Amino acid sequence: MVYEWFRQIEFAYPWALPALLMLPVIAWLHWRMRRSLQPTVPVSSVSTFSRKGGRAAWVHFPFWLLLLSLGFAILALARPQIRNVSSRARGEGIDIVLCMDVSGSMLSADFYPNRLEVAKEMAISFVQARPVDRLGLVIFSGESYTLYPVASDHASLVEQVRGLRSGMLEDGTLIGEGLATSVDRLSDSKAKSKVIVLLTDGKEQPPENRLIDPQTALRIAKAAGVKVYTIGMSAGGEATVAEGGTRARVGTGGLDEALLRRIANETGGEYFRALDKEGLQSIYARIDKLERSQVEVSTRTRYAEQFQWPLGLSLLLLFLALLLRNTVLRIFP
């Protein structure tokens, strides 16, 4: 506890601290003065005087108390303080939905260790870089699901992203339903700018029970005034995917880049192709720059004065030294 207190201490007047160097000098002078004292009455032996009783052994104790009192007074003069800095970010935020593909192909190992893990890492970095924005998370594969609504609790969102895994939903790739669900999450948004970042590594694979196709979802996004940035995640060629403990090779040329480019262009966004981890990182960094919030950071610094503690100790030691010097340890001439 005492160590933590000293670790946080700063001095407003540090120029007073060198005065502490006087203390060992004063102690040395006191010792020299005691050594130089000579008896004024000649005697045959001083052995009797060399035997000090209990009271005599403490005769110089008030001096050391006075020395400590002076030391604490110098510390008080240096004005110790504890500085507390608080910052608050304010601004006009943007409402953003991360729409992420969690289909089985996202386990492809053309990104190390796989596409999904890299996508999660980059998404978390993106979230942490936007302190004043509200963000949400929608996942899709053979169906779509809102995993986290649009909110300002970034810590909870990051935990949801960390927990993503393939197999959470029925397998497949329904880009249209993922996009439509993301737009719906922004339907009640009052933000001036509403953005979706849609990441996928495949193309639409519609089952018979598909509810919304990509073209319909695109029209819904345009009508709602939502800007969509699309990211195609694939290194090309073939990649290895783990399925049920076995390894299988799948083609990675299944990206529907024409669809992703059209969704981005018609909503005012931009299409990006991620070929590796560094490429995906730069894509998120570019989107971060394109969609900047107006942020104002206010910083307030407060100082808690601590000089009263060494000053109180100094006065206490001074009082104790004077009390002892004038009572039980009084020296008679």
Fold blueprint:
Blueprint: H1 2-8, E1 9-11, H2 22-36, H3 47-50, H4 54-57, H5 61-77, E2 80-92, E3 95-101, H6 115-128, E4 134-140, E5 144-151, H7 154-162, H8 175-185, E6 194-200, H9 214-223, E7 227-233, E8 238-243, E9 246-251, H10 257-267, E10 271-274, H11 277-290, E11 294-305, H12 308-325
Parallel strand pairs: 3-4, 3-6, 6-7, 7-10
Antiparallel strand pairs: 1-2, 2-11, 4-5, 8-9
Helix pairs in contact: 5-12, 6-7, 6-11, 8-9, 9-10
Describe this structure in words.
The chain contains 12 helices and 11 strands. It has 333 residues and is an alpha/beta fold. It folds into 2 domains: 2-35 and 51-84 and 303-325, no CATH class; 93-294, 3-Layer(aba) Sandwich (Rossmann fold). It has a 6-stranded mixed β-sheet with strand order 5-4-3-6-7-10, sandwiched between helices. A 3-stranded antiparallel β-sheet has the order 1-2-11. It has a two-stranded antiparallel ribbon with strand order 8-9. Keywords: Cell membrane, Membrane, Transmembrane, Transmembrane helix.
